[in-house]
Design a protein that fits this description.
Elements lengths: L1 H21 L2 E2 L1 E7 L11 E6 L20 E5 L4 E5 L2 E2 H15 L7 E5 L7 H13 L3 E6 L4 H7 L5 E5 L23 H14 L2 E8 L5 H11 L7 E6 L12 H13 L4 E3 L11
Parallel strand pairs: 3-7, 7-8, 8-9, 9-10, 10-11, 11-12
Antiparallel strand pairs: 1-6, 2-3, 4-5
Length: 285
């Protein structure tokens, strides 16, 4: 009987090893819980999983540590932090996210986890498998992305409950990491952004579109962005985010410029919110 049980256990472990070997993996920067939220969910308790690597370089980026992954990623349980070896399997990341949420706020009515970056759509298979695992546990899955890869989004959108899609204005961008992402003078990623929104809306996900506004942004760029977004205008929340100075961005957006930009969106009949970054003012991660 002991030999039979041992053989059964051996087969079970082998099957599990084979399943894990086939799982998608992604390099992580961190997993943590915060009340910072995002977009329409600002201030909402939420667990965040941050993936490493990003093909873009934004002048305003405040997470340059996400460009490359370390050998391990910190997982913050509130009272303790553990280091998880990279890259991390999707099911393992899902279990850690569930544990972080439970440790931070047990009994939370609707636990949510936001996959952010870096750029999560560099790893669409991981996002899909992670999303299924956390949603099977009753969590809602948010995806925060630069929204420049519609094909990658389409491959994992069935596990996304809420999409937070950036709209990158040309004045806010530095040279990207890949030649195929280089913009011609006067061009932007608008077509790709809109395609991503349409994919999410067809799936039935709620969609926020975030436009970061720096003191380099000119009226024509925002006008073009609003024009491009008109096909999805009535189904999205437009979030205008005045920049928080960091790195290459030294100055905040002038109040008169912010008021003018908001008025432009209102004239185009967008449902618009002004939501600056809140976690720094609240001393949150």
């Amino acid at each position: 009987m002991d030999l039979r049980r041992a053989l059964t256990d051996l087969k079970s472990r082998k099957a599990q090893d084979e399943r894990e070997a086939k799982e998608a993996r992604a390099p992580l920067i961190e997993i943590f819980h915060s009340i910072q939220g995002e977009g329409r969910f600002v201030g909402a308790p939420m667990t965040f999983l941050r993936t490493a690597t990003c093909p873009l370089r934004c002048h305003y980026c405040d997470t340059p540590n996400s460009y490359e992954a370390a050998a391990t990623a910190p997982v913050n349980f509130g009272v303790r932090t553990q280091q998880e070896p990279n890259p991390v399997r999707a099911s393992r990341a899902a279990e850690l996210s569930r544990q972080v949420s439970q440790a931070a706020m047990p009994g939370l009515k609707q636990p949510r986890v936001s996959v952010t970056g870096g750029e999560p759509l560099v790893f669409p298979e991981f996002v899909q498998q992670f999303g299924k695992a956390v949603r099977d546990e009753g969590m809602r899955m948010h995806l925060e992305t630069a929204a420049i890869d519609p094909d990658a989004l389409a491959s994992c959108i069935n596990q996304v409950d809420h999409l937070s899609a950036d709209y990158k204005l040309p004045e806010t961008l530095d040279k990207p990491q890949h030649k195929k992402l280089l913009l011609m003078p006067g061009a932007d990623y608008g077509t790709l952004h809109v395609k991503c929104c349409e994919i999410a809306l067809r799936r039935g996900a709620s969609v926020d579109v975030k436009i970061v506004l720096t003191d380099r942004v000119q009226d024509p760029a925002l006008e073009q962005a609003l024009e491009n977004l008109l096909p999805v205008r009535d189904k999205i929340l437009l979030v205008l985010q005045p920049v928080t100075p960091f790195g290459a961005v030294k100055r905040p957006l002038a109040a008169r410029d912010l008021e003018r930009f908001v008025a432009m969106a209102v004239r185009r009949k967008f449902d618009v919110r002004v939501v600056p970054q809140t976690h720094k003012t609240m001393n949150l991660p």
